[in-house]
Amino acid sequence: MRFEIKAATGITHLAIEGELDAVSVSELRPDLEKLVKGRPTVVEVDLSSLRMVDSSGIGALVSLYKRVRAQGGSVVIKGLRDQPLAIFRLLRLDRVMLGADTRSPPPANKQSKSRH
Amino acid sequence: MIRLQLLGILEHRDVALRAVSTACKLVTPRPQGRAWNDFQMKVVSAVGEAFNNIVLHGYANRPARAQRGEQQIREQQGSIDLRIQTRRGHIRIELRDWGPGFDPRRVPPPVFDTLPESGLGLFIMQSFMEMAFRSGRPNLLTLSKRYVERSSAVRKSEGAT
Questions:
Q1: How far is CA B134 from CA A87, B61, B90, in A?
Q2: CA distance B119 to chain A (A)
Q3: Residues B30 and B40 sit within 8 Å (Cβ to Cβ)
Q4: What is the pLDDT of residue B60?
Q5: Contact B66, B77 (CB under 8 A)
Q6: What is the pLDDT at residue B8?
Q7: A100 touches chain B (CB under 8 A)
Q8: Is the separation of the CB atoms in B2 and B16 below 8 Å?
Q9: Which domains does chain B have, with CATH numbers?
């Protein structure tokens, strides 16, 4: 697993590559802690090169999402595909973590949040 | 049958998953295409969670003592016995461990609306594979999954997309 954090004006970019799992998540957590303490306004998480994620990796991403939002910021998750996308869908995170922050237009027939 | 004796440490998880990933190729003469990729992804994801559960919960707080003998490792540090059985259209994986057992039926499903940060591994395992658990010495977790061969017409259709 490799990751990179870049702070730009108004947006903090986090890119994670490879496998985010119970083994590698311990390398990421201290930097996520620093990231959250910086009270970012927007965190853009690029997962386009993430090949595999497990429940430990998901836990770290959910924690980041909840803590940034609790501080009034937002988290935008981009680039999910293959196994990570399947896990997000299985755990229904796509409805919440992607739906709230991807800023994509809602489907034309969407009536309420509960129908995602 | 493929059989691996592993230490109950996260560093050995990749060894287990590589074996499982490769074994997925044995369920079909054509290990490729969308359906097979999905099958392999689900099997590897489920076994990864099972391995995590044993190491992080079953063998929590056990110091690594890799220099000891096999029996001592099993009793003191913890080992994982992984057995993989394949036949056409089916894979069955058994994980044996010597930690305290648990009853998966007593684990409540995650409440997704609260964005849980833990307790997701068991749900992933049960969603992606058939699961059975027998508590004891050793505990025995069995994960199995069928693979349904796609017809050549479906494969051609997948290849065209």
A1: 26, 23, 21
A2: 8
A3: no
A4: 82
A5: yes
A6: 92
A7: no
A8: no
A9: 2-160 (3.30.565.10)
pLDDT in tens, B62-95: 655 545 555 555 555 689 999 999 999 999 999 9
The answer, for B12 touching chain A at a CB cutoff of 8 Å, is no
| Full-model pTM | 0.85
With contact defined as beta carbons under 8 Å apart, do B155 and B140 qualify? no
**Which of B120, B123, B125, B128 to probe by mutation at the A interface, max A CB count within 10 Å?**
B120
Q: What letter represents residue A65's amino acid?
A: Y
- Hey, are the CB atoms on B41 and A55 less than 8 Å from each other? no
- Cβ contact B43:B25 at 8 Å: no
The greatest distance separating any two alpha carbons of chain B, rounded to the nearest whole angstrom, comes to: 55
The set of residues, in sequence order, having a beta carbon less than 8 Å from that of B144 and lying 6+ positions away, is B90, B91, B92, B93, B129, B130
Q: What are the tokens at B50?
A: 């099972």
